[in-house]
Design brief:
Layout: H1 9-21, H2 37-51, H3 63-70, H4 74-86, E1 90-93, E2 97-100, E3 112-113, H5 124-141, H6 157-167, H7 169-173, E4 178-182, H8 185-196, E5 202-206, H9 211-219, E6 223-227, E7 229-230, E8 233-234, H10 236-246, E9 250-253, H11 267-279, E10 283-287, E11 309-315, E12 327-331, H12 335-346, H13 353-365, H14 367-389, E13 394-396, E14 402-406, H15 413-422, E15 425-426, E16 442-446, H16 453-468
Helix pairs in contact: 2-4, 3-4, 5-13, 6-13, 8-9, 8-12, 14-16
Length: 479
């Protein structure tokens, strides 16, 4: 760490000797059921600093020794020290170890980003290692020429075979479907609307829905029709009524950990909607980026529609990393899908060969599953943290990357968002989710953007305090 001096060798030697020969008094056994083990370790260090047991300049135990003492693997301790470092409590020096920082006030950013829906990255160094090793493997086995041309990845059999492995049960249930690749789900949504509608056509969606769909539909001059929903998701009778009144032929749905409400549509509702779509020969755009995060989600609606006009979108950006700007599209065989593939090429939405092959490598060597599992562990810990801090009125999935916070009547969503921004917390303007004119009764909070549990905790405490405040003075002037 440049620009900083390590503590004097004498103190380091004394501290190291203490760690090797005897267990520090502040160190306690880990307790099952009290949260992730790495967080228990981090919290013990933080508590010792607050209580003065660990003082500036003291060396913390070597990672391997601590792992042995607590009976955990080295990775757990490495994650714990990374968390403590993110709180500003320790500083590390190559070859010397880690020491309690001279100034242990937590680093603060100007804004905590809880607006962008991104998965947390609890092991950023590991992600970088995976990217490096994946590209090295690709270059070693296939050469730079394989990813340097203009070939269309949707015609690359090895990349498509990997896609089928990742899609797993969806591909099996939708036998006969064709797999396409696109540079992100947003491009797939835009091109699907482009090839299945004309300017002025009505399209059906949830009354609160993904902003990217609304943006694409408005850019194409489509009439957006928000369909009422209940606790299980979009209501079939309401779909029927809206279809009959408007003549809509296209339906957009996000049925798993829905953005923004977090609702996961149960299997019986999915079957009912699939039957309705099939009966009226509608085109379904099923956007399902969060399905891999939810181990308990039913099969997609598209899986109940063999031979129907169903297009299933599976993005890697929301469940693995935004660096993988890639989406798979399961589409019915036929002319409509050929038109979609041509539209991808015409609009430049074909996937980068480099990203396609990197995704292929990760899927086939197990890296993708390992990263997914790690993200699920981290999101579960963050959702548990949110549930322990925020007041009643939170809808969330235990491994989802966002939550829906219902607001008391005296708070309008826009005013609440402005008040949070004044406190250094950014959330998405709730208007961006509205398909209809009515104001929603809550706001979406994303938990993946905070850089650490410490930062997330501070932000959630600010949100809680704001929710529990009485009507703010002059709030009628805030729009």
């Amino acid at each position: 760490m440049s620009g900083r001096k390590a503590p004097k060798a004498r103190k380091a030697e004394q501290s190291t000797s203490l760690h090797v020969e005897e267990r520090p008094t502040w160190l306690r056994p880990l307790v099952q059921g009290r949260g992730p083990r790495y967080l228990q370790i981090a919290d013990q260090v933080a508590r010792a600093v607050r209580q003065g047991t660990l003082k500036p300049g003291d060396q913390v135990p070597p990672q391997r020794w601590l792992a042995s003492q607590l009976g955990v693997d080295l990775t757990t301790v490495t994650r714990a020290y990374a968390e403590v470092r993110s709180r500003g409590l320790i500083a590390s020096f190559g070859g010397r170890g880690s020491f309690i920082a001279e100034s242990y006030s937590a680093p603060r950013r100007a804004t905590v980003d809880m607006a962008m829906n991104v998965p947390p990255l609890p092991a950023k160094r590991a992600l970088a290692d995976h990217i490096n090793s994946g590209i090295e493997n690709l270059l070693r086995n296939s050469g730079a020429e394989s990813v340097s041309g203009y070939q269309n990845p949707e015609l690359d059999s090895s990349a498509l075979q990997a896609a089928k492995v990742w899609l797993g049960p969806m591909f099996k249930a939708m036998s006969g479907s064709r797999v396409l690749m696109c540079a992100g789900a947003q491009g797939a949504i835009y091109n699907l609307l482009l090839t299945h509608t004309r300017r002025g056509d009505p399209v059906l969606c949830d009354s609160l829905t993904y902003p990217g769909f609304l943006r694409a539909a408005r850019a194409l001059g489509l009439k957006i029709v928000g369909v009422p929903r209940d606790a299980s998701g979009m209501v079939p009778d309401a779909i029927e009524r809206c279809r009959r009144e408007t003549g809509a032929r296209v339906l957009y749905l996000n049925p798993t950990i829905q953005n923004p409400t977090t609702c996961t549509m149960p299997a019986d509702r999915r079957r009912e909607i699939a039957e309705l779509i099939h009966r009226h020969d509608l085109t379904l755009i099923e956007d399902d980026p969060y399905w891999p995060l939810a181990n308990d989600a039913p099969l997609p609606i598209s899986s109940y529609m063999a031979g129907g006009h169903a297009f299933y979108l599976a993005s890697l950006s929301k469940c693995l990393s935004p660096s993988l700007r890639l989406a798979y599209v399961l589409a019915p065989s036929g002319g409509a899908t050929s038109m979609l593939a041509e539209s991808f090429r015409a609009s430049g939405m074909s996937c980068s060969p480099l990203l396609a092959h990197l995704a292929q490598t990760w899927i086939l060597n197990g890296t993708a599953k390992d990263l997914l599992r790690e993200i699920q562990i981290e999101t579960r810990a963050r959702q548990t943290l949110a549930g322990s801090i925020l007041p009643d009125g939170v809808d969330a999935h235990r491994t989802g990357i966002h939550l829906w916070l219902s607001l008391p009547r005296h708070w309008k969503p826009q005013a609440f968002g402005h008040a949070l921004e004044n406190r250094g917390i950014q959330i998405a303007n709730t208007d961006v989710f509205n398909a209809n004119e009515a104001d929603p009764a809550g706001v979406r909070i994303c938990i993946g953007g905070a850089q650490s549990h410490f930062e997330l905790t501070a932000a959630l405490q600010q949100i809680r305090a704001l929710v529990l405040e009485g009507r703010p003075e002059g709030d009628s002037m805030v729009v």
